[in-house]
Amino acid sequence: MEEHTNDPEVNQNEELTGETSEKENASTEAAPAATKEEPKEEPKIAVAELDIDALVTTLEQLTSGEAWKKQRDTIEAINTRFRTLFTANFEQRKKAFLQEEGANEIDFEYRPEFKLRFDSAMRDYRKKKQQFYQQRASEQKINQERKEAIIEEIKALVGKDDNINTIYKSFKSLQESWYSTGPAPRAVNNTLWQNFKHHVERFYDFLHLNRELRELDFQHNYEEKLKIIEKAEALTTHPDILQATRDLNTLHRMWKNDLGPVAKEHREDLWKRFQEATKKIHDRRQEYQKNYESIQKENLTKKEELLQQIEALIAPVPTDHRTWQTTIKNFEKLKADFQAIGYVPKKRSKEIWSKYREISRAVNHAKNEFYKKQKNQQRENNTKAKALLEEIQQVLDADDWNTKVQQVKALQKQWTKLGHLPKKMLPLRKEFQKLCNTYFDRLRSGYQRLSDAEQKVVEQRDAFLANYKKETPEATAAGFATFFDTQWSAWLALGEINAAAAKTSDEAFYQASCALLKKVKLDKELQQQLRQEYFVRCMEQHPEAIRQKQAEYKKQYDAVQAEAQQLENNLEFFSNSSSDSPMVKDLSKKLELLQVKMEQMKSEGNALRSLVRKAKSAAEVSAAPTEEDTIPEGTPTQNDTPEETAPAED
After folding, report:
1. Are residues 51 and 170 both part of a single domain?
2. pLDDT digits (tens, 9 = 90+) for 10-33
3. Contact 421/429 with Cβ under 8 angstroms?
4. CA–CA separation, 482 vs 491, rounded Å?
5. With contact defined as beta carbons under 8 Å apart, do 240 and 341 qualify?
6. Number of domains the chain contains
7. What pTM does this model have?
8. Which of 19, 61, 140, 454 is most deeply buried (CB count within 10 A of its CB)?
9. 404, 424, 445 — which closes off a domain?
10. In the predicted model, is pLDDT for residue 647 greater than 60?
11. Residue 77 and residue 68: Cα distance in Å, rounded?
12. Does 299 fall in a domain?
C-alpha cells in the first residue's frame, strides 16, 4: 500500500503561478546533456599485458559488434600497443634477414597473418566509426532544422490573437516536441538552446499579461481535486475496505500525477481534507487487519442471510410477467449486495460460493421455464388473433355484412379473452380494432356496398379528379365559373353511385375546386361567395353535409357573440371618466373587431341560406308535374333539404 504523508504539490513544477513559473525553470535549465560528446569509458582490458596475438584477437572481438562505441579508448590503446610491438618485431626480423649471406634490404618483406588480421579489423573499425559519425551528423542536421522551426513557431505564438487556452496548448505541444527532439550539431547546439530559452521566456512574459489561463487552470484543478476528495470520502464507508484501499491509491496517483496546482488559498484546505479521508480509510484498514477473523465471520453471516433472501424469491415461483419482473429486479440487487461483501473464512469460502451459484441457477432456471411457456402461449395467442382478424375481415367482405352485428360482438369478446400478446404483436390489436370500428361506422353511416357498375364509376371519378387537380383555369371570376360548370357537368355525367360513396366523392371534388380557386387570386369576398356557391352545388344531393355546415356557422357565430357580450359587460364597470384609460381603449377596440366579425359571419350565413333556398326552388321547379305526368291533387311532397337555422338578423 502506498504511503501518503506529504502534499505532492510541494514537488511539482508550478505553472503560471507568478514568479515561480516554468519560465524560471526554463531559464535555469542546462542545455540538454545529449548535445555533449558521448562519454568515453576507460579501458577495462589490461592492454599492456597482452602479447601481439592476444591484441589481434581482442581487437577482432571488440570491432565485431557494437561494443566498439564504448571501447574506443581500448581500441586506440590496442592500436598503439600493437604498432609498438609490431615495429620491434619488424626490426628484429629485418636485422636477422640482413645478417644472412647475400641478403639485400630491398628484398626484405614481412607481412605475417596476424598483421593482415589486425589491418582488416582496424579497417572495419574505421569504416563503422565513419558511418556512425556521418549518420549522427545527418540526424543532428535534421534536429537542427526541427528545433529552428519550433523556435519560429513559439515566436509566432507571442502576440497571437487567439484563445489563450488554445495558444497555451500549442506552446506545451511545441515544448514537448523540443525536448523529444535529439541533439543538433555541436557548433550550433548551444546557440539553439539559448534562442529557445529566450523565446520561452518571451512567451511566458506574454502569457503573464493575461491571467485568464492561470485562473482557468487553477479552477479546473480545484474542481477535479474536489471530485477526488468526494470520491475518497465516499470510500470511507465502502463495505469492502480492501477495494476501498485500492481505489484510494488510484486517487492519490491521480492527485499527484494528473493534476496541477490550485490557488494558494485553497491548497492547504484541500490537502487537509484529502488526508482526513485517507486517514479514515487507513484506520479502517488497520482495524480490519486487527479483527480480520471476526469481520470474515460477519461477512459469512451476511452472505448466508442474502442467500436465504434469494431462495425466498422463488418460494413460491412467480406465475405472471409483472411479478417475475419484480423478482428479477430484486434478484439482481441481492446479487450485487452479495458480491459487494468482503471475504469470508477460507474454509467456508468454497462452500458459500457453491451455494450462491446453485441458488442463482435455480432462479434463472425457473425464470427461463416461465418465459419459455409464456413464449409458447404467445405463439398460440398470436395464431388465435390472426384467425379472429381474418374472420372480422370476412364479415366486412360479406354481402350481408349488416346482419352480422352479433357475430362481430362475439369476436370482440373472444379477442378480450386472448392472453398476453408481446409488443411486436401490437399491430394485430390495432388492425382488429380498426376493422371493428369500420364495421360499426358502416352501420351508423348507412354504408352500401358498391356494385360492379358503381365501382367502375368510382374509378372513373378518381381518374377524373386526378386530372382535374392539374387544370389551370382562366384567372377571372367569369372564366372560372365557366370552367367549374363544365367540369361539374362532366363529373355528374360519369354516372351515379350510392349516397355514402357519392358524398365522399363530391366532397373531394369540392375541395379540389377550392384549391384551384385559391390559385386564381380573386377578391377575398368574391372567393368566399364562390366557395359557398360551389359547396351548395356539390352537396345538393347531400343535405346532411349542408346542415352540418350551417350548424358550424351557427356555433361559430354564437361563440363570437358570447365573447362580445362579455366584453360589453366588462366595459360597464368603467365610468365615463375612465374612457381614456388604455385598458378601456383596448377593450373597446376588441369589441369593435368582434362586432365586425359577427356582421361578416351573419352575412356569410345568410348567403349560404339564400343559396340553399335557391337550390331548393330550382329543384322544385325541375320536379314540377307536366301534362303527361300529373301529380294527383293533395299528394304530399318531401323536401330532402330542410331549411336550417342561420344566425338571426338584428
Report:
1. yes
2. 333 333 333 333 333 333 343 443
3. yes
4. 14
5. yes
6. 5
7. 0.32
8. 140
9. 445
10. no
11. 13
12. no
CA angle, corner 373, sides to 367 and 379, nearest 5? 135
68 in a domain, yes or no? yes
DSSP string, 342-389: ----HHHHHHHHHHHHHHHHHHHHHHHHHHHHHHHHHHHHHHHHHHHH
Is the same domain home to 73 and 139? yes
Long-range contacts of 418-423 (CB under 8 A, 24+ apart): 418/381, 418/384, 418/385, 418/388, 419/377, 419/378, 419/380, 419/381, 420/321, 420/374, 420/377, 420/378, 420/381, 421/378, 421/381, 421/382, 421/385, 422/378
Domain residues for 386? 377-445
Report residue 398 as a C-alpha cell: 360479406
Which residue type sits at 121?
A: A
DSSP per position, 572-636 = TTS-GGGTT-HHHHHHHHHHHHHHHHHHHHHHHHHHHHHHHHHHHHHHHHHT---SSSPPPTT--
Dump pLDDT digits (tens) for 147-178.
Answer: 889 998 888 888 776 777 788 888 889 889 89
Other C-beta atoms lying within 10 Å of the C-beta of residue 87: 10
Residue written as grid cell 372480422:
392
Residue carrying C-alpha cell 579508448 = 73
Residue 646 cell numbers, joined:
342561420
pLDDT at 627: 43
User: Contact 205/157 with Cβ under 8 angstroms?
Assistant: no
Residue that the C-alpha cell 535555469 belongs to: 28
**Conformational region of residue 16, where left means phi above 0, alpha means psi within -120 to 50, and beta covers everything else:** left
d(CA 61, CA 57): 6
Coil, strand or helix at 261: coil
Cβ-contact 359, 307 below 8 angstroms: yes
Task: Let me know: does 1 contact 249? Beta carbons within 8 Å.
Answer: yes
How far apart, in whole angstroms, are the C-alpha atoms of residue 641 and residue 541?
A: 8
For residue 298, is it within any domain? no
**Cell numbers placing 586:** 383596448
Of 8-17, 491-500, 550-559, least confident by mean pLDDT is 8-17
